[in-house]
Specification:
Length: 145
Amino acid sequence: MDRTGKLAVAKAPAPFSAAWIALGFLLLAGAAMPRSDVARESPAAFRNASAGIYGRLQQLPGLEKQMLAAGEPARAAYYERMRDDTRRRIDALMLEAEAAVATDAERARLARLAVLAGQADARAEQLRATTAAGRRSPPLAGLHD
């Protein structure tokens, strides 16, 4: 009884407290369980690497054009360094993609990207040979391919 002489009734616990406790337990139990989607990380890694390769392959012709358009040799050397750095990053991403390849379709895509990288290297060699010969506007076949 309380002071007024009425019978004191115990308050019921919050209506969802047991549900929150159960939910917390399930979340903790789920976090401790081994992940079944570990094998699914490989396609994501391949997609990320191949997208990076493709994007950087698209940057190369622009850098080559800047090398040609640069009026001073120091500026041309700057764009050539940028182009070479981009090409090195493509090589690193190729290695990442090769490590993450899981299907035949991915192997075919990687082979196509390797062909495109080879074409970019051929353009770069043509550009270097042309600029070494003293010509400023070489006929770069396939610059927009």
